Amino acid sequence: MDLIKIGIIGAGGMASYHVKGFTQAGANVIAMADADISRARAFAASWGIPKTYAGLGEMLKGSPELDAVSVITPNKFHKPLVIEALEGGKHVYCEKPPALNGAETAAMLEASKKAGRRLMFNFNNRARPEAQAMVNYIRGGKAGRINSAQAVWIRRAGIPGFGGWFTAKALSGGGAMIDLPHMLDLALYFMDYPEPDYLLGTAYYDFMDNKAFKGPWGIPDSAKGVTDVESSCHAMLTFKSGQVLMIRSSWAEMNERETAAVTFQGTRAGGKIERLFAVDGIDETSADICRIFTEEGGNQVDLAIKTPKDESMGRIANAANFINSLTKKEKPLNTPEEALVLMKIIDALYKSAASKKPVQIK
Ligand SMILES: NC(=O)c1ccc[n+]([C@@H]2O[C@H](COP(=O)([O-])OP(=O)(O)OC[C@H]3O[C@@H](n4cnc5c(N)ncnc54)[C@H](O)[C@@H]3O)[C@@H](O)[C@H]2O)c1
Predict the structure, then answer these.
(1) Cα 306 to ligand 1 centroid, rounded to whole Å
(2) Per-residue confidence at 335, pLDDT binned at 50, 70, 90?
(3) Which residue out of 9, 14, 128 has the highest number of ligand 1 atoms within 8 Å of its CB and is therefore the one to mutate?
(4) Which residues line ligand 1 (CB under 6 A)?
(5) pLDDT tops 80 at residue 24
(6) Cβ atoms of 108 and 82 closer than 8 Å
(7) Are 121 and 228 in contact (CB under 8 A)?
(8) pLDDT tens across 51-100, in order?
């Protein structure tokens, strides 16, 4: 089979991980597009990508041999670009969050079905070695039934720029919750994506005008830009199966340090996977934890699963999985049907926060 040819749209912070993952799986990255052509050219020059374009339309026309397109733009552009690429007959890999909301994600799912092309998202945390080790443990039946789980991504001072696209709801869809959907997705993955029932949640807007809470990365501040999204969200989600999930996401809260974790409690074992980040870019300590809590022979037992370190948090492995799913070497690590469930949960969280009432998810 010929090598998969892929083009990337959006030369921002995530593009290098996509290139590394696609090429690791044997694909050829042949085109780079960015609305700012100078960014496309600079990126293409440093990664040896032969063709550059100022937009997806130009790229589809100029490089008709493309098999697939990768979308790495601000969230507002995911839906139109993904649908245009699918309708152009390309398989599509798209950054998280899938789109601004569930309705857009449903339209993207429909477009992929209609075109008969793969649509996969960058829920990179599923591809982390410790997440794969944990899911194998769970799918092997060793955890029993997962009754409850907690999905947490908290930052102390991690607002990704003031007035840039991340903080403008019209461009991003929301703040900490929609930007950090990874642990919610991972908890749902561990629980085997049960059908959601009710959600009760809150959102807070503290520190969104306080430069002391800006992250050490992200995009530059824009004095003319809008800042109208939440800094943190907390919610409780029940499932029709009787399971329950607590959700907590923040860009800025009075926390000890940045951590991303899923903990769960099963009838045979509980578990935890956690990334402790270097403290807001200042401290050098960082750790990946993968532990099982169980009972054996009348004793309470803790197990530590040892896996290789992956500084990229699965970003390279997930992009490689997309290519390997096209060449039928691997199953895709996520589906657009799951993405739709995730986005309906995020919609419900914003709705519940605004109405102060529980929301039934249909
Ligand atoms: N998976 C992860 O860990 C992770 C981390 C950071 C960001 N992201 C996601 O990646 C996406 C991009 O984020 P980023 O940090 O790279 O943003 P960024 O602002 O650094 O880069 C976005 C690029 O897209 C270009 N662009 C904007 N609109 C365009 C359009 N319509 N057509 C072509 N190019 C366009 C911009 O010129 C810019 O170069 C977002 O969806 C974000 O949520 C994912």
Answers:
(1) 33
(2) very high
(3) 14
(4) 9-14, 33-36, 39, 55, 72-75, 77, 95-96, 122, 124, 219, 315
(5) yes
(6) yes
(7) no
(8) 999 999 999 999 999 999 999 999 999 999 999 999 999 999 999 999 99
How far is ligand 1, taken at its centre, from the CA of residue 277, in Å?
22
Residues 265-287: what's their mean pLDDT? 82
Query: Token digits for 324?
Result: 């390997």
Contacts 24+ apart (CB under 8 A), 209-212: 209/162, 210/252, 211/162, 212/157
Q: What is the mean pLDDT of residues 31-52?
A: 98
Out of 9, 32, 34, 92, give the residue to mutate to test ligand 1, the one with the largest number of ligand atoms within 8 Å of its CB: 34
Cα(211) to ligand 1 centroid in Å equals: 22
Mean pLDDT, the chain, rounded, equals 96
Q: Domains of the chain by range and CATH?
A: 5-121 (3.40.50.720), 126-311+341-360 (3.30.360.10)
Confidence grade of residue 281 (pLDDT, cut at 50, 70, 90): low
- Residue 257: pLDDT band with limits 50, 70, 90: confident
The pLDDT of residue 251 is 97
Kindly report the protein residue whose alpha carbon is nearest to atom 17 of ligand 1: 12
Beta strands in 212-330 (DSSP E): 232-239, 244-250, 259-266, 269-276, 287-296, 299-304
Q: Please, which residues have CB within 8 angstroms of residue 354's CB and are 6 or more apart in sequence?
A: 203
| Residue given tokens 């990365």 in the structure block | 217
Residue ranges in 11-91 assigned as alpha helix (H): 15-24, 37-47, 56-62, 78-87
- Annotate 179-204 with DSSP letters as a single string: H--HHHHHHHHHTT-PPEEEEEEEEE
Q: What is the CA radius of gyration of the chain?
A: 20
Asked whether the beta carbons of 340 and 102 are under 8 A apart, the reply is yes
Count of positions (residues) in the chain: 362
- pLDDT, position 362: 96
CA angle 345, 163, 229 (to 5 degrees): 25
Question: Quick one: pLDDT at residue 282?
Answer: 53
